[in-house]
Write a structure and sequence with these properties.
This protein is an alpha+beta fold. Helices cover about 55% and strands about 30% of the residues. This is G_PROTEIN_RECEP_F2_4 domain-containing protein.
Length: about 100
């Protein structure tokens, strides 16, 4: 299982990368709209649409965040036989964690 500290590091890393993504995509949008030559033609608009998609994705990821689902099952079957007494034990641990 991952520790709580790991989830904090992962959360902060996603926040920092999301902010970097927003800044670089906004800079890219500015450069495409103001500095691109007219010879690019319709390719310029493809780059604009791609940058808009990336900006939207970065905003959604930054504000909604990722959710980690951890699901683990541990099963253990023990069989003891002593004379005529038979002991059967079944141990099952199910754990579901949701980290956001």
């Amino acid at each position: 299982m991952l520790t709580e500290e790991w989830y904090e590091v992962e959360h902060h890393t996603q926040d920092v990368c999301g902010i970097i993504s927003l800044v670089t995509n906004l800079l890219l949008m500015f450069l495409i709209l103001t500095k691109s030559p007219t010879a690019l033609g319709s390719y310029k608009w493809l780059m604009v649409y791609t940058t808009l998609f990336e900006l939207t994705y970065a905003l959604v990821n930054l504000f909604a965040g990722a959710v980690s689902f951890i699901f683990s099952i541990h099963s253990e079957i023990t069989l003891f036989s002593v004379g005529t007494n038979v002991r059967i034990s079944f141990h099952c641990v199910s754990q579901i964690e949701i980290q956001s």
